[in-house]
Amino acid sequence: MNFGGLKNQLFAVALIAMCGSFGSRVNAQQQGTQPVRPFEQISADEQQHLVTVLDFWQEQSEGISLYECSFNRYVYDTALTNYRDPKTQQLSADSVAVGSIRYGKPGKASYETTSLYKFDGPGKEYKPVTDAKLREKWVTDGAAVYEFDFQAKRLYETKLPPDMRGDGAITNSPIPFMFGARKDQILQRYWVRVITPPGAKDEVWLEAWPKRAEDAQNYLKVEIILSHEPFLPKAVHMYLPQYNPKKNNFSSVYISFADQKVNDRLAKIKDFWGAFVKPSLPKFEAGWKMVPRQQMNATAAGAQPDRK
Question: What pTM does this model have?
Answer without folding.
Answer: 0.83
